[in-house]
Amino acid sequence: MKKLLLILVLVLSTTSCANNQMLSNNNEVNHTIEVTNEKVVDNDKDKSNEASIYSEIYIVALESFTSLDEALNHEMKYIAINNDTLIKATEADVDIVVDYFKMFGVDVINESYKTLKEKDMVIDEFYIEGVLLEIETVEFLSEDKVVVEGSKYKSGLGAIGVKAILIKEDGHWILESADITWIS
């Protein structure tokens, strides 16, 4: 538990400066993982209690999603992160990501669009009172570069697809670019 708290403190302190996240070496190169129909194709999600590099990769990428099309954040009551799309994330990684996004001052919940709908959290068949963040693919182009694609959803007419490119610079992962790939 002390180790997890130390990791959390380290992550939160290093992420306070925009997108300067410290990561350990990543030995995966040119490996793409995809999510289809809310199921991980590369079903290699680690259930250990040890944090991995993925918590910091997801923090940088998902934070870039939230900063794009900020109008979707208007009157946001919660952030729903579909944890099932956090590919290869350990339970500790998921906890770190959730704790990080609490800085937005709203509830952070683990939900997909389907589960939001099942819980009657979808209004008029297409609108939610928060934002839903999901990862679609994670591709390591090299040990120092990763591409993360996903989406940010507010409504059927208020959603974006995002492609974030992260690079490792001086031992830290930083956001190189984040671009909107589609708009609804």
Description:
The chain is α+β, with helices and mostly antiparallel strands and 184 residues long. The protein has one domain. It has helices at residues 2-15, 54-67, 91-101, 113-118; strands at residues 21-22, 31-36, 39-40, 78-81, 107-109, 122-123, 127-142, 145-155, 158-169, 172-183. Strands 1, 2, 3, 4, 5, 6, 7, 8, 9 and 10 form a ten-stranded mixed sheet that branches. Helix 1 packs across helix 3 (91-101) and helix 2 packs parallel to helix 3 (91-101). The longest helix has 14 residues, at 2-15. It is globular. The protein starts with a helix and ends with a strand. The relative contact order is 0.20.
Q: What is the topology?
A:
Elements: H1 2-15, E1 21-22, E2 31-36, E3 39-40, H2 54-67, E4 78-81, H3 91-101, E5 107-109, H4 113-118, E6 122-123, E7 127-142, E8 145-155, E9 158-169, E10 172-183
Parallel strand pairs: 4-5, 4-7
Antiparallel strand pairs: 1-10, 2-3, 2-7, 6-7, 7-8, 8-9, 9-10
- How many separate domains make up the residues? 1
Could you give the count of β-strands?
Answer: 10
- Rg over CA atoms, rounded to whole Å, is 16 Å
What value does the average pLDDT take?
80
User: Low-confidence parts lasting 5 or more residues at pLDDT below 50?
Assistant: 1-46
The helix-and-strand class reads: alpha+beta
Characterize the overall form: globular
Secondary structure: helix percent: 10-25%
> What order do the SSEs take from the amino end to the carboxyl end, as H and E?
HEEEHEHEHEEEEE
Strand content: 35-45%
Major beta-sheet overview: 10 strands, mixed
Q: What is the terminal-to-terminal distance? A: 43 Å
Number of helices: 4
